[in-house]
Design brief:
The structure is a single chain. Helix content is 48%, strand content 7%. By secondary structure, the chain is an alpha/beta fold. The strands form three sheets. Strands 4-5-8-3-9 form a five-stranded parallel β-sheet, sandwiched between helices. It has a two-stranded antiparallel sheet with strand order 1-2. The radius of gyration is 25 Å and the shape is globular. It folds into four domains: 73 residues, no CATH class; 177 residues, Rossmann fold, CATH 3.40.50; 214 residues; 28 residues, no CATH class. A hairpin with a 2-residue loop joins strand 6 and strand 7. Bound molecules: adenosine-5'-triphosphate and magnesium ion. Adenosine-5'-triphosphate (ATP) binds next to helix 5 and helix 13. The site of magnesium ion has 4 residues, from helix 5.
Length: 512
């Protein structure tokens, strides 16, 4: 065997090659039947998935021949790519996690928000190894009793395992948000629960955000905030009661023992992030068929991420923004194709791809900026990159805003939404409705901030009255889902329980 085959350079591997390597950690994609929707594994003879509602038959390799197994695994890799992409960075991280788990060391990962901690552990556990995984999402309202009850339930579950090899992975997500962190330390680091030893078949993992202070820039942004300005003393009394508002994440200090196990992911550096961007963009429909646009979008996203890091903080942007971009792009492209001539449905021209990409870009970055000056600076920066790659754009005045954004808003809002009498379709209202619509239909959480009276609630009401599913007046809105509002007024005195109740109410109203 030559050196190249024995010690390959993993940095040159793509998603499928990395997947083939990881698949060899377990038997999941070897001698099992797999559901093509939820990727649960079954006995080779089983034909239907018992877990999800999928009606598709289970899939498996044609034979145990190594060629057939590779074909099968490549097929699975392709299917998985739409939800999670492998890069050399997360490949190495997964191997290191696996090594620690095999050695019986708790895995505690720390990193900035959105650097991929939760999704990495879920992917490794469910899609590669198929171990039993319980995700315990910790938050400030989780009491010691809740933790003990949950742990007792897990112990029961593990005791019922008959298979020697089987293990239960317990993942404490955001574990430093509760003041009961001491109890979690006992469970994860000492492997006891109130002094009683825990079964060996339990594997503990945890993910958390770092305890660090806001940078001067962020504090400045907080102060230059939208909304009414209170005097500083009053603000301090109001905001700093209970939690330390100088902290970037609301987290508690960690016990020393835990610190020894902590593994700091920090945030993704530029080159790693570029890798993720390139691979994640393969999810965008038809985008990679157009090489020029594909490279342009990579460049635009990369520069936008850097721009936000410069004006705000390292944690301001993350893979979440890239994920959001892909979802919005796909939705807008579908929507644009639907409006155009039939023959373009399966063969969108490049103008559609441009439009969908730029609208998604504006939604991900432009609308987040809170002042007109910042918006101007950002648009200018993007425009310079655009003109460099596509010189013809320079001829269109205000290309991004007037040509792309306002045209889309006209189509979605001015031409088809009914607004109450005497309501002016001004900029603020249109922007609010547009962002709300795009986020709601794509299930992207949205916080609309603005000075009192800047059309926030009215935008929500207008949207509600127009999006009524099949009962909507407009034929395009009939193709969108119906919206049902569940409202909740937040205040300083809200508790975790009251928030949980809102979600229960919401679940009831949709009949879950
Ligand atoms: N390798 C990947 N391929 C595709 N998408 C990814 C990948 N890694 C992360 N993402 C996307 O990035 C988003 C954020 O990831 P994740 O939830 O794992 O972050 P996190 O580190 O747990 O953040 P937090 O500290 O806020 O909990 C997810 O929506 C996920 O879809
Ligand atoms: Mg997370």
């Amino acid at each position: 065997m030559n050196e190249q085959a024995m010690l390959p350079d993993y940095n040159t591997f793509g998603h499928s090659e990395l997947f083939l390597k990881l698949a060899s950690l377990s038997n999941k994609y070897f001698n099992k039947s797999i559901c093509s929707k939820c990727f649960d594994q079954y006995d080779l003879k089983q034909v239907k998935c018992g877990e999800c509602a999928s009606k598709d038959l289970l899939i498996r390799p044609i034979s145990f021949d190594s060629k057939d197994i590779e074909i099968f695994q490549r097929d699975i890799a392709k299917r998985l790519q739409s939800s999670y992409v492998l890069t050399p960075d997360n490949f190495i991280k997964m191997l290191l996690i696996y090594m620690r788990v095999q050695s019986g060391i708790p895995v505690l990962i720390m990193g900035e928000t959105g650097c991929g901690k939760t999704s990495l552990i879920k992917f490794l556990c469910q899609k590669i190894l198929d171990e039993d995984l319980e995700i315990f999402r910790i938050h400030a309202g989780v009491t010691a009793d809740i933790i003990i009850n949950k742990m007792n339930a897990y112990i029961k579950k593990v005791q019922a395992y008959t298979d020697e090899e089987k293990r239960l992975w317990i993942f404490f997500d955001e574990f430093n948000t509760t003041t009961n962190i001491g109890l979690l330390k006992e469970i994860m680091c000492e492997r006891t629960l109130l002094g009683e030893p825990l079964p060996n078949k339990m594997v503990f993992l945890g993910a958390c955000n770092p305890r660090r202070q806001k940078t001067a820039q962020l504090i400045q942004n907080d102060n230059a905030h939208v909304g009414l300005r209170k005097n500083r003393y009053e603000m301090q009394k109001l905001l700093w009661a209970g939690t330390d508002q100088r902290l970037l994440y609301t987290v508690v200090p960690m016990p020393e023992t835990m610190l020894e196990y902590i593994w700091d992911y920090g945030y993704l550096n530029e080159t790693t992030e570029l890798d993720y961007i390139k691979t994640m963009l393969l999810r965008c429909k038809y985008l990679s068929n157009f090489e020029v646009i594909f490279n342009l979008v990579i460049q635009l996203l990369f520069q936008s991420q850097n721009h936000f890091r410069q004006i705000e903080d390292a944690s301001s942007v993350s893979l979440r923004d890239i994920d959001r971009f892909c979802r919005l792009y796909n939705w807008f492209l579908d929507s644009i194709c639907q409006r155009g001539p039939q023959e373009n449905l399966d063969n969108p021209p490049d103008t559609y791809i441009y439009r969908a990409s730029f609208i998604a870009l504006m939604l991900c970055y432009y609308f987040r900026l809170h002042s007109d000056e910042l918006k101007d600076v950002y648009v200018k920066k993007i425009h310079t990159i655009l003109v460099e790659k596509i010189p013809s754009i320079a001829k269109v005045p205000n290309y991004l805003i007037s040509y792309i954004l306002h045209r889309e808003q006209k189509w979605l809002i001015h031409d088809r939404m009914e607004v109450p009498a005497n309501t002016a379709r001004n900029r603020a209202l249109c922007d609010n409705i547009f962002v709300l619509l795009a986020c709601i239909v794509n299930r992207i959480p949205l916080f609309l901030c603005g000075k009192p009276g800047s059309s926030k609630s009215s935008a929500v009401q207008i949207l509600m009255s127009n999006l009524k599913g099949k009962k909507s007046k407009d034929s395009y809105f009939q193709t969108l889902p119906e919206l049902v509002a569940v409202s909740f007024h937040g205040s300083q005195n809200c508790t975790s329980e009251s928030i949980i109740k809102v979600f229960e109410r919401a679940a009831k109203s949709v009949g879950v």
